[in-house]
Amino acid sequence: MRSWLRFKSNSSGRWLQRQVNDVHSKQAKHENYRSRAAYKLHELDDKFRLFTGNTHGVVDLGFAPGAWTQVALERLKKKRATSASVLGVDLITCQPPQGAHFITGDILSRTTHQQIMDFFGDKRVDVVMSDMMANTSGIKDNDHYASMDLCHGAMLLSLAVLAPGGSMVMKYYTGKEEQDLVAKMQAMFAKVYRFKPQACRNESRESYIIGQRRKQGVAVDDVFN
């Protein structure tokens, strides 16, 4: 018991020290972002131009605590896409920023997919973004496979709601099925990129995959064959 408590204390101390010394965490607090993850989306949008003046609908998967939705709202306002709808989705109930909406749901559930479709109705979704990550176990392969499951859930949603020409960005853990993920994305999108923002911690195995210009007429069987 003593050794476990000592390990827990040391581990917690390292995490706290990392937060104290983290430039992005300090900046997020100063700029009123809900988390340092905001700066990852800043980089992703700067590089891949996810949000445009023609963006009408955005889905933010893995919403909590809401930093990506904050960035999306800011970027859409700058692009004068003020009528765009932004919907956050997460297992954890969380109050959305003013101007956004939220539902509690599991992306691996058909019920959640239907709730998202019902929210947008006849409106199109132009951007699906996912910062989802399963609770890590410390076992690299298990964490990677859990990440792939979440990515597949997000892709199935995109096949249902993302307009032709739309974009998608997802976080994933690198591992054995990364090339298969790329191949699936290439079946859905005209352009596919992998990118690790500088705001990601160096020791993290997380990265992001970006799909641009969603192909028209691509069905589930074309991707998950």
Enumerate the strands of the largest sheet in spatial order, edge to edge or round the barrel.
3-2-1-4-5-7-6
What is the global morphology?
A: globular
Cα-atom radius of gyration: 18 Å
The fourth-level CATH homologous superfamily is Vaccinia Virus protein VP39
Which consecutive residue ranges, at least 5 long each, have pLDDT under 50?
1-17
**Mean pLDDT value:** 90
What is the H-and-E element order? HHHEHEEHEHEHEEH
**Name given to the CATH architecture:** 3-Layer(aba) Sandwich
> How many strand elements?
7
The residue fraction in helices comes out at: 40-55%
Question: Can you give keywords for this protein?
Answer:
alpha/beta, disordered N terminus, 225 residues, seven-stranded mixed β-sheet, Rossmann fold
Structure explained in plain terms:
There is one protein chain. This protein has 225 residues and is of the alpha/beta class. The chain has a single domain, classed as Rossmann fold (3-Layer(aba) Sandwich). Helices cover 44% and strands 22% of the residues. A seven-stranded mixed beta sheet has the order 3-2-1-4-5-7-6, with helices on both faces. It starts with a helix and ends with a helix. This is rRNA methyltransferase 2, mitochondrial. The active site is at residue 171. One of its GO terms (molecular function) is rRNA (uridine-2'-O-)-methyltransferase activity.
Secondary-structure topology with pairs:
Blueprint: H1 2-21, H2 23-30, H3 38-48, E1 57-61, H4 67-78, E2 85-90, E3 101-104, H5 110-120, E4 125-130, H6 140-161, E5 162-173, H7 178-188, E6 189-195, E7 206-214, H8 220-223
Helix pairs in contact: 6-7
